[in-house]
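Posting here for the record, re: flavin-adenine dinucleotide.
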Amino acid sequence: MVGGGIAGLTAAHRLVTLDSDLDVDLFERSDRSGGNIKTTEFAGHPVDEAADAFLTRVPWAVDLCRELGLDDRLVAPSGLPASIWHEDALHPIPTPNVLGVPLEPEALAASGLVSGAAVDSLRHDRAGNGRPVDHQDSIGTLIRGRLGDEILERLVDPLIGGIYAAHPDDVSLVTTVPQFAAAADAPSFTRALAEAQDRAGTATEPVFATPRGGVGQLVDALEHRLGDRIHLNAVVESVSATSTGLAIEVDGRTQAADACVIATPAETASRLLASIPAAATLAAVDAVSVSIITLAFDREAVDGPLESSGFLVSRSSGLTMTACSVASAKWPHLGHDQVVLRVSVGRAGDDAIAAASDATLIDVIRRDLATTLGIERPPTDMRISRWPHSFPRYRPGHLERMAAVTSALAGSGIAIAGASTTGIGIPTCVKSGDAAARRTYELLR
Ligand SMILES: Cc1cc2nc3c(=O)[nH]c(=O)nc-3n(C[C@H](O)[C@H](O)[C@H](O)COP(=O)(O)OP(=O)(O)OC[C@H]3O[C@@H](n4cnc5c(N)ncnc54)[C@H](O)[C@@H]3O)c2cc1C
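Prediction output follows.
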């Protein structure tokens, strides 16, 4: 197993549960496992440095928590509303919506985010007069075609940008938002989304959950199960086929193996598999860098609305921050003694911010917080968490290209998994690690 992020940890865990006699080794380059999941103490509470929750509308992460005995520790966010910063003001995100796609014209009009013409385009779609879009297209093509540029740029882009750090015109519909793809060719896109929400009975249920104590607890539980099968500070340099199986080059020595799951970012996987032609496809999956700046303030320091889980920022607003989560309001278990904000920066097309020094980053964020929340006083605590190349870009056709790599590797004993392959997010990575482990197990039997 290469890579100790959630996909690699899940794959190793699954192999061990399928057959406890299997000899499983997990090699992780850094000095900790978890990859893009990391929870540390901040202002007296465990606060996530990257992912802070996972979707509950798909089963994979919740099921894994249940299997690990964490299900009774899961907590949901407070459910306070979120808003969008656009044209120098915060606007409520119209509800109901699906990832920013508004479903009710009246709520959209009341948000003040878009013009009357944009509200009319939603009415037009609701009436079933939309133009079907190929589900292989980008999110931008779908939303522009169905609902127009304003709804895309002021609502969907901030949400998609906040979750995937991507530009909707560049990202594959089917890989990124399968629920959009499933509704893309219905006569009314928005009615199809609303009906799917009703069918799932999820419109009012919490969409996200996290273990009390942070997402890091999921990593801790997996680490605990895997014990000394995890090797930290172990850099894998290549994985290649030999006459008797596989050879894994790790830290200058060669380890023989019958099978190997590679759960690293795609660019690394392509290097490790340089001897296998199909793996070249992986090199083309680039990734966007983001950072999370966490700040704590005394309550009196903040003028802005705090009865909110946070806000997203429209691209045209001229701010650097892409989102601000009010962690202390979003997660009641974090306590209310101070205001804790998690500010995100970095998105596709904004490479400069990834390279900015800590001092520049802090200056820019404090300016943005003064503009949006009227915070002039310095924070009492602050930390910067940098996540270079952490958001893979899923260009149209991504899933087909990854399926081709997977089938070219079939029978070789090598399986690929993780966010670069089938999609971002903890549940999808859990599913992908689990599937890679099951494919590997079938081959070994
Ligand atoms: C800031 C941020 C916020 C996020 N928020 C959320 C959220 O709220 N909810 C959600 O569901 N998802 C969120 N995500 C996405 C989610 O965290 C990721 O999709 C997921 O954790 C990726 O897991 P992975 O195992 O595929 O990859 P990674 O976590 O990238 O793990 C890959 C591992 O491979 C190791 N590795 C690389 N090269 C080698 C090598 N040569 N040898 C050995 N090891 C190697 C790396 O060190 C790393 O530990 C967020 C991501 C970020 C960055």
